[in-house]
Specification:
Layout: E1 13-14, H1 16-24, H2 30-38, H3 45-51, H4 57-66, E2 70-71, H5 73-81, H6 86-92, H7 114-121, H8 125-143, H9 148-156, H10 160-176, H11 184-196
Antiparallel strand pairs: 1-2
């Protein structure tokens, strides 16, 4: 599905249900989960479409919205401006019943706080796997065949200490890539989100 006119600059935010899905690893497909992770209340549909090149982002967004994991606050504001009641809004957006709070990222920190170091050392294998999938997919997307050795390193990660080392190399490779450089920071934020969850 093509991005409809007027939707390319639309911004979605996670609902409470979306936040819980990331923390509890529900039953989303890996692609839907990946999209949910990178939705942060700042990225436009166009940016998300570029980050998930080759995917039908509009269909995926519609599914996440229908299932109540994300919401488009601008659409809700439009309903309110048109005089629709809250019941009407809830009927059009299942996630609208709960508070709509964008995910706000904290500014980058030069050193790792002790609490984060402890969380990193206790990463469970499922969370490490989620991070590896995100890193592997972005490496394949932006580096292509040139990223094969990095993909092999990512696949070999078994613990948090090794993950941290490979993350640094992965982030640098994205930054040095012509196509990946604009998204390197966004992907790093997504990985850090997964680590902290």
């Amino acid at each position: 599905m093509q991005i409809p006119a007027g939707m390319s600059n639309a911004v979605y935010v996670k609902t409470d249900k979306g936040q819980q899905e990331i923390q509890q690893r529900g039953n989303l497909s890996p692609l839907l989960r990946r999209l949910l992770i990178v939705i942060d209340g700042a990225r436009t549909v166009r940016m998300l479409s570029t980050m998930l090149a080759g995917s039908d982002v509009m269909t995926l967004l519609l599914e996440l919205e229908t299932r109540g994991f994300i919401v488009n606050p601008a659409a809700i504001a439009t309903f309110r401006m048109l005089g629709d009641s809250d019941a009407g809004i809830a009927a059009h957006s299942p996630a609208a019943a709960g508070p709509i709070l964008p995910v706000i990222s904290s500014p980058p920190v030069m050193s790792t706080p002790p609490a984060q170091e402890e969380a990193e050392s206790e990463l469970d294998p499922a969370r490490i796997n989620d991070i590896k999938v995100l890193m592997r997919d972005s490496t394949t997307q932006f580096l292509g065949l040139m990223g094969n050795s990095l993909v092999a390193e990512i696949e070999a990660v078994q613990n948090a200490a090794r993950l941290k080392t490979v993350m640094a190399r992965w982030n640098m490779a994205l930054r040095e890539s012509r196509t990946g450089a604009p998204y390197a920071d966004q992907y790093m934020k997504a990985v850090k989100t997964l680590i902290r969850v």
